[in-house]
């Protein structure tokens, strides 16, 4: 493990400790429903590196979101009457700068927040599906809202699914969102487990550099 990797791990541990020590009030989750899935992954431009700095990561995230945002603009503009569009975001190193934000609340991943804000301003519900355990649900929700996300729903793992396959768990949560009345027009994450399994019209993959980012 390199010095940069050790630093990132220590920082992440510190941020997690801060999260677990925080006290906030949990909020209620929102509804959801059906839509066909035609997943089309968009990959980041940088090759995997042994150590990734924040500027490189942000550049590569922006390269992906530069494709996602025009799609969202066109898709939202053409939404049929009565449709309830939604987007789904992973949390760690997607919505938030988990491996780079060594504090609590952790900063938003700026290019993802920009796309989410555009969606929110145009009536699109923003859902979050994370493999984080339920014990940090309230502090995660607070963090997301604090940095500017409107949280239509936040799905975390409870005791019943804590050890389930991550891809299967996330697929089931997207299906649940559809079952509650939403059309998921985009699913954004930095891992294959965030995006596989369908239940989204389009998928956009942020960089994880061969699993270096959580």
From TrEMBL:
Gene3D superfamilies: HAD superfamily/HAD-like. InterPro entries: Acid_phosphat_B-like, HAD-like_sf, HAD_sf, TAT_signal. Transmembrane segments: none annotated. It comes from the Bacteria. It comes from Streptomyces minutiscleroticus. Residues 1-29 form the signal peptide. PROSITE patterns: TAT (PS51318). This is Hydrolase. Keywords: Signal. SUPFAM superfamilies: HAD-like. The keyword Signal applies.
């Amino acid at each position: 493990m390199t010095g940069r990797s050790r630093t990132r791990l220590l920082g992440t541990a510190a941020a997690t400790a801060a999260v677990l020590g925080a006290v906030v009030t949990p909020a209620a989750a929102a509804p959801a429903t059906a839509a066909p899935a035609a997943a089309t992954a968009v990959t980041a431009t940088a090759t995997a590196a042994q150590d990734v700095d924040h500027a490189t990561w942000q550049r590569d995230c922006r390269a992906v979101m530069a494709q996602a945002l025009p799609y969202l603009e066109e898709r939202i503009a053409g939404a049929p009457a009565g449709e309830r569009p939604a987007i789904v975001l992973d949390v760690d190193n997607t919505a938030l700068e988990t491996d780079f934000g060594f504090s609590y609340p952790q900063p938003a991943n700026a290019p993802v927040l920009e796309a989410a804000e555009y969606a929110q301003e145009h009536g699109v519900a923003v859902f979050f599906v994370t493999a984080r355990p339920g014990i940090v649900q309230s502090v995660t929700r607070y963090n997301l809202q604090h940095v500017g996300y409107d949280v239509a729903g936040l799905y975390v793992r409870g005791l019943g699914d804590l050890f389930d396959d991550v891809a299967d768990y996330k697929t089931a949560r997207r299906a649940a969102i559809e079952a509650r009345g939403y059309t998921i027009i985009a699913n954004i994450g930095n891992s294959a487990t965030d995006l596989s399994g369908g239940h989204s019209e389009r998928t956009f993959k942020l960089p994880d550099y061969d699993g270096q980012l959580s």
